[in-house]
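Structure first, sequence second, as always.
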């Protein structure tokens, strides 16, 4: 059976005393008494069977054995610090945000550094999976896509028809039904806001000649920007590309969506940074809406 290791505190007292060449200075750094540091080092010397320090009237110096041991102990303590550092952050330093991939792609990826610029002590963790039961207990902010359940909406939760400027360069905007039928339609699946249900709101026919189905609004605006067709998509996700000029509205009509993006800060831990994040994100969305989408 292997012998147990000496207590970690003994090694820490040895390292600290060796760095300062003083039991008193080591005691001050470690929050111990000078006698406690001296006693721990004596115990370590007894356990190892060698002297680590020469005690002199004007201070202490390392012995040859102490000089050999110090770098090994320092490396071991540094490894322990590195291993435990990710777990030692207080809960107030980590803001966990559960969000859709589309919001993360078009809002958080390009803008999150601005939110963090004035908060150097705050770390952010992003979760972009479909949330299982119980995930709410481990998140501070949730941005979910779905039906209205009484939480604040992110943006206006409206629908838009958008395309790349190059795709419709030869057309007169807003498009009429005949012109609209010339281009593929891009739409997200898994939402109640499909073309069959929404065509009449835009004044177009429901029977579109070709359709590209995607699994997210983020991908729908990506395809529209690439010139693959006209996207029936979320106004919220299209806003950044409308603001940059990479997309244009092919219809001024922006009907209300059945499914949208809703945001919520959970009470309890990290309530303050969670509310600050929500206010920052809502302000950014509002600014984009004021500049590029009709009211």
């Amino acid at each position: 059976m292997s012998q147990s290791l000496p207590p970690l505190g003994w090694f820490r007292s040895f390292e600290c005393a060796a760095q300062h060449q003083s039991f008193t200075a080591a005691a001050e750094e470690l929050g111990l008494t000078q006698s406690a540091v001296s006693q721990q080092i004596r115990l370590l010397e007894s356990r190892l069977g060698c002297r680590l320090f020469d005690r002199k009237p004007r201070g202490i110096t390392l012995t040859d054995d102490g000089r050999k041991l110090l770098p090994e102990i320092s490396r071991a303590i540094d490894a322990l610090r590195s291993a435990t550092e990710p777990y030692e952050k207080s809960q107030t330093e980590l803001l966990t945000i559960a969000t859709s991939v589309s919001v993360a792609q078009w809002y958080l990826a390009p803008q999150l550094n601005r939110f963090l610029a004035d908060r150097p002590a705050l770390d952010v963790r992003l979760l972009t999976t479909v949330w299982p039961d119980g995930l709410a207990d481990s998140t501070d902010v949730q941005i979910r896509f779905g039906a209205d359940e009484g939480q604040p909406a992110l943006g206006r939760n409206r629908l838009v028809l958008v395309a790349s400027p190059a795709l419709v360069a030869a057309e007169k905007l807003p498009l009429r039904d005949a012109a609209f039928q010339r281009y593929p339609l891009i739409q997200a699946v898994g939402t109640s806001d499909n073309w069959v249900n929404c065509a009449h709101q835009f004044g177009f026919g429901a029977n579109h000649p070709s359709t590209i189905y995607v699994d997210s609004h983020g991908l729908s605006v990506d395809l529209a920007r690439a010139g693959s067709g006209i996207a029936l998509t979320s106004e919220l996700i299209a806003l950044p590309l409308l603001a940059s000029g990479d997309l244009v509205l092919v219809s001024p009509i922006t009907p209300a969506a059945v499914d949208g993006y809703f945001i919520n800060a959970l009470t309890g831990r990290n309530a303050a940074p969670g509310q600050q994040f929500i206010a920052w994100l809502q302000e950014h969305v509002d600014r984009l809406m004021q500049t590029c989408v009709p009211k």
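Margin note: The longest strand covers residues 141-147.
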